[in-house]
Amino acid sequence: MRHLLALDAGTGSGRAVLFDEEGRQLASAGREWTHREEPGHPGSMTFERERNWERLADAVREVLAQVPGANVAAVSTTSMREGIVLYDEQGRELWACANVDARAVREVRELRERDPELERWAYLRSGQTFALGAAPRLLWLERHEPELYERAARLAMLSDWIAVRLGAEIALDPTNGGTTGLFDLATRRWDPELFDRLGIKPAFQETPVREVGTVIGEVSPEAAAATGLEVGTPIVMGGGDAQLGTVGLGVTRPGEGAILGGSFWQQEVNLDGPRSDASGRMRLNFAPDPAQWQAEAIVFFPGIAARWFRDALAPDLKERAAREGRDAYALLEELAATVPPGSHGITPILSDAMDYSHWRHAAPSFLNFPLDPEKAHRGAFFRALQENAALVTRANLERIAALTGAPLASAVFAGGAAKGRLWPQIVADVLQIPLKIPVVKEATALGAAIAAAVGVGIHRNLEEGARAWVAWEREVEPDPALAEVYDEAYRRWKAAYPAQLELADRGVTRSMWRAPGE
């Protein structure tokens, strides 16, 4: 029996997940990590390459130890999008940042001041704004680290960084590379005109572009010593986490949609061609299938908010879960399940609905909670957090439907949020559509494993692999009786959020996150 290994550099952790050639998940291991802010550079998120590589390699060793005699036929990689890594002409790593690095405030403002129409032009050409694009960060480096910028010759993404560490060539794929904002949405390749008008040196265009599922190298002796993998194991091009996640959910055809519930929640809807969003609110990406694109919306930090709640407000449950061999989130859901839908009117303020052209969020807060311990307790606040993620997802899907003209009649739901019983039901009830829950919740990892399988000929293409491997655990039907409850919660949140956002815009409160230049 052959095995496929997926390696994932996520926002909050690095993971290694092992599958057999029939798509069964055999073992997984993860290591939590955080991203350091550089002193003197507010909003920066440095990706600590050496530390994180050691943690990821350690996770690989743990996974291989769980499956003695594992026969790894290929390994593929995936990661948060937008995080970039620079290399010099000799292939040496120079610099890296994580996905929501927001240091380039001045550079974004200068680009906008130089030409007020430049960002819209770039968005219509690339599907991306300056919010998380590579151009402002590269211009920041040119200003603050000119010698480093001058030496930089290749640009890749964090998924590619893992592959290079394993022994692959420096290359990137469209699903992740497209989030640089330097790709032509129509061609899936670097766009020289974007480089020219944004003032980015053209050398980075020499970085090869490889499609998902292409063999790009083999595990080196150094990587084998660090990870326990066999020297010569094929390395297959992976891609962006959300895009490979759709493959791992069997969402491979135009019109199909998925909700990935991790640190961030992404809503992905497949398109049969590139679209222009006149509102500028939606993000447009390349799908793993070269003939498809995706409309994307993002809810910021639901998983990170849940982790904060667990660690800050429920450390006793975390300790109890460790003693009992349970998941602390399962204990929190048990508390939340005792609370009626609507959470007694408690309204969390976290992520706004997707507005890619003016991307920022209000200060985190809880509104409208009663000073009644029978109603305002940990279970109620945690349920309110869960409901809020679903409500913002609803807002995002409504905005995607305005672009496509076709609301989703059903969706696939996966990621860490799909592991419990309560959160999927809340999402179905808020959206009032059925959700399919896959057996393998690690959808992004499964998508990367499918890419690995394509690379070594186990499957002919990604769709065939998805149809063969994706299995369903259950379907969650919405409760029509709760539609009115959640309609009211939705109206309340939509009315409350602009006022909270205004406070953050005025500097009265501190924004949870805002894109550079906002």
UniProtKB/TrEMBL annotation:
Q: Where is the Carbohydrate kinase FGGY N-terminal domain?
A: 5-248
Transferase among the record's keywords?
yes
**GO MF terms on file?**
autoinducer-2 kinase activity
Residue ranges occupied by any Carbohydrate kinase FGGY C-terminal domain in the UniProt entry: 289-455
Q: Which GO annotations describe the biological process of this protein?
A: carbohydrate metabolic process; quorum sensing
Q: Which UniProt keywords apply?
A: Cytoplasm, Kinase, Transferase
Family membership, please give it.
Belongs to the FGGY kinase family.
Q: What is this protein called?
A: Carbohydrate kinase, FGGY
- Where does this protein come from, organism-wise? Oceanithermus profundus (strain DSM 14977 / NBRC 100410 / VKM B-2274 / 506)
